[in-house]
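Hey all, quick one. A colleague (J.T.) asked me to put the zinc ion job into the tracker so the inputs and the structure tokens live in one place instead of scattered across chat threads. No bug as far as I know, just bookkeeping. Sequence used:
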Amino acid sequence: MRRCAKTRCERSPAATASLLYGAREVCLVDLIREPDPRFVDLCDEHIDRLIPPIGWVVRDDRTDPPADASELPRGRERIHR
Ligand SMILES: [Zn+2]
């Protein structure tokens, strides 16, 4: 059972974050299939609260589940619950 990487968080992860040191980007992608020590799995809540290190940006490359035939580029809005 996979869990969010944050200490004491027991939610299941919703996405995977990778740190691109060269580009100074925190890259969010859909949850990867297998846990990988190079990446960090985070739950929805911690993704929403994700604060990048100073000088870094968060790039959200997650894809939405296909809801309709829309092919708009993903300037995804955060979903707040
Ligand atoms: Zn969490």
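Adding what we noticed when we looked at it: The chain has one helix and four strands. The radius of gyration is 13 Å.
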